[in-house]
Amino acid sequence: MELRHTPRYEPNRERALLLLCSPEAPLPSTTQKLWHATLGQAAPSTVLPHDAARIFFGEHGMVVAVPLPQERTAAAVDRLITQAMDLCRMSPAAELVLHPDLFVEAGFAPSAFLLAAAAGLLCGYRFSLAASEASEPLPDLVLVTAQPEDARWAESIARGVALARDLGNTPANLLCPATLAETAAAVAQQAGWTVQILEGDALASWGCLAAVAGASRVPPRVVVLDSAPHSDQQPLVLVGKGITFDSGGICLKPAGHMHEMKADMAGAAAILGAITAIHGLGGPSRRTVAILPLTENLPGSGAMRPGDVITARSGLRVEVQNTDAEGRLILADALHLAGELQPCAIVDVATLTGACVVALGTRIAGLFASNTAIQDRVFRLGQSLGETFWPMPLADLYAKDLKSEVADLKNIAHREGGALYAALFLRHFVPQGVPWAHLDIAGPAWSKDKVSLVQTGATGFGVRTLTGLMQEEW
Q1: Are residues 214 and 68 in the same domain?
Q2: Parallel, antiparallel, or unpaired for β 436-440 and 364-369?
Q3: Sequence-separated (6 or more) residues with CB below 8 Å from residue 440
Q4: Chosen domain end from 74, 101, 124
Q5: In a domain? residue 39
Q6: Distance CA 324, CA 333 (A)
Q7: I need a surface site. Which of 37, 256, 299, 370 has the fewest CB within 10 A?
Q8: 206 with 313: CB under 8 angstroms?
Q9: DSSP output for 165-198
Q10: What is the pLDDT of residues 421-442, one digit of tens each?
């Protein structure tokens, strides 16, 4: 599957043009003209008598007519492209043509055209370790644009999302902390970033990370990537949870869906995908540092126990009341390091809590922020790039519930409001006054069904928004 661009639309019998249509409504003027140019006939008064996509064959080529959603959002673009690709699979179309004027005429923002191109490329994504896997033929994509950077943006985003999906889908016996650290180093080298892998004695003060890693045969790693290590510019720091497998530890998870916990490193994967994407776009607009704490969370004789008190890198002492609340522990140590870098802002991304999935479902991520400026920035970027976040409160009235009777903090509080307590826990390790956003992507990071562009498995959620954050001025 390839992506090409052309300055003008020229129909032919192997091409299918994507048209966006409202059922029971006449086609807009530009859409009518392109319908006539492609099929050699005037457009009917209504193209879709029912709310279902259809393909039409004509004198000069094909038209794929896809019904418009009620809301013209970036998230809806993925579903439109999926419908178009599904029809093209069953047709003789060798190419699917995307025209920017048709998206604007249909009421979408101009950026929807580029999102559609990236989404089209991701329709071809498959992950399989089977000995033999038949590939499904898909049409190539053709963008009607005179700007080569349009195609480059789509390809870069798709490449980054695909990498994040590959990492999240890879079984934990093939992707442990050591191999994920090696992958991160390769990504950094490709992008021209420096890489530092901390292990052994270099992690002596990382008490929370060490506690989580205690039962794993593979020692933990912390990967630090820097886009401009010699710059004196305050960096944007991205912190990604990298639990390569989460059994829950001694507080063992139910067996039913435990295999999905190979993707509990989706936060780290999203950051690596974003670094891959931003490299294709010319690099970040300012110095960016990524911190990836990597470990497994397993039961065993060396595992942390409920009731243990551990000392975080910051010096705070934490009482472990649930070993399955491990993500916030490794993030605590990583956030403390992030604060030492005198950052302009810190953004952490993690599959942190099942409570956030209960609250927001599997399509929306939780957004906790220290101030409205960074909250609005993340929310706006997510909306424009097809990743939906919902602002959640850092409610001070709940903070006292994290007070431990034997230590400074405990790692859980009440079952109700679990996502809020996790965010409030993390806040203890972020310097006051530093803009900070915590992205709980536990819901949208994994798909159990075919939803939009994803079959099942890791989605690569977060790559688009993190790439956008690196592109913006701070």
Answers
A1: no
A2: antiparallel
A3: 350, 351, 352, 353, 356, 365, 366, 367, 368, 392, 419, 422, 423
A4: 124
A5: yes
A6: 17
A7: 256
A8: yes
A9: HHHHHS-TTTS-HHHHHHHHHHHHHHHT-EEEEE
A10: 999 999 999 999 999 999 999 9
Q: How many CB atoms lie within 10 A of CB 139?
A: 25
Spatial separation of the C-alpha atoms in residues 409 and 7, rounded to whole Å = 60
Structure confidence at residue 347 as a pLDDT band (50, 70, 90)? very high
Contact indicator for 18, 123 with CB cutoff of 8 Å = no
Q: What are phi and psi of 121, to 5 degrees?
A: -65, -40
- Rg of the Cα atoms in the chain: 24
Same domain, 190 and 115: no
For residues 173 and 188, give the distance between their C-alpha atoms in angstroms, rounded to a whole number.
23
Q: Is 470 helix (H, G, I), strand (E, B) or coil?
A: helix
The tokens 């021209």 sit on which residue? 192
Regarding whether 304 and 167 lie in a shared domain, the answer is yes
Q: How many domains does the chain have?
A: 2
For the ranges 38-47, 76-85, 313-322, which has the lowest average pLDDT? Answer: 38-47
Return the exposure string of 334-347: e unless at least 16 CB atoms fall within 10 Å of the residue's CB, then b: bbbbbbebebbbbb
| 328 in catalytic set | yes
Beta carbons of 187 and 163 less than 8 angstroms apart: yes
pLDDT at 451 over 70: no
> Is residue 143, in this structure, part of any structural domain at all?
no
Residue 454 has pLDDT above 70, yes or no: no
The CA angle 122-127-133, to the nearest 5 degrees, is 115
- 33 catalytic per annotation: no
Look at the chain and count its residues.
474
Note the pTM of the prediction, 2 decimals: 0.96
Are residues 455 and 338 in contact, defined by beta-carbon separation less than 8 angstroms? no
Query: Which of 152, 253, 317, 380 is flagged as catalytic?
Result: 253
CATH number of the domain within which 422 lies: 3.40.630.10
More confident residue, 52 or 416: 416
Quick one: DSSP state of residue 209? Answer: H
Matching residue, tokens 């957004």: 367
Count of alpha carbons within 13 angstroms of residue 25, beta-carbon side: 14
User: To 5 degrees, how large is the angle CA 328–CA 331–CA 333?
Assistant: 115
Question: Residue range 34-42: average pLDDT?
Answer: 92
208 and 116 within one domain: no
387: DSSP letter: -
Residue 184 forms part of a structural domain: yes
Residue 213 sits in the same domain as residue 120: no
**Rounded Cα–Cα distance for residues 135 and 115 (Å):** 24
- Determine the pLDDT at residue 409: 98
Q: Which domain holds residue 38?
A: 3-124
Is residue 293 within a helix (H) or strand (E), and if so which, with residue range?
A: strand 288-297
